[in-house]
Design goal:
2,3-Dihydroxybiphenyl 1,2-Dioxygenase, domain 1, alpha+beta, VOC family protein, globular, 3 helices, metal-binding, 39% strand, MMCE/EMCE_epimerase, 137 residues
Length: 137
């Protein structure tokens, strides 16, 4: 199945400072900004477009349960994940299972824009958190 680069997720401590950096310094455009308190997300998210490349700035809203807070505590701020768009997430999951690649339990969801996504287990992806996503509907 074809995979196309979709976006880079960046874990940040201060979303205002990060938005400023990506818009004023790097020339990006703030496309969207929202807050998700869904279990396994618990973050404020800003979507930045820089000449067609997308970045998700992710700031934890709960420092005890947010996976972004855990990430920052363990690894510091910076690149959290790389996302690839697939034609069909369900088919991609079957392909991953056949290849012996696991996903992170409880990470499958649909965001507010209708993007279906799941995170691959970094133990199976050389330590990198990889997101697969599709845009069905």
């Amino acid at each position: 199945m074809k995979k196309t680069f979709d976006h880079t997720g960046i874990a940040v401590r201060n979303i205002e400072d990060s938005i400023h950096l990506y818009t004023k310094v790097f020339g990006g455009e703030l496309i969207d900004r929202y807050r998700s308190e869904a279990t396994g997300v618990e973050s404020e998210i800003a979507i930045i477009d820089i000449d067609g490349d997308r970045f998700e700035l992710l700031m934890p809203t709960n420092n005890t349960t947010s996976p972004i807070a855990r990430f920052i505590k363990q690894k510091g701020k910076g690149v959290h994940h790389i996302a690839y768009r697939v034609d069909d997430l369900d088919e991609a999951l079957v392909e991953l299972e056949q290849q012996g690649i696991r996903t992170l339990e409880g990470s499958r969801r649909t965001n507010k824009h209708g993007r279906r996504l799941i995170y691959l287990n970094p133990a199976d992806t050389e330590g990198t958190i990889i997101e697969y996503c599709d845009y069905k509907g």
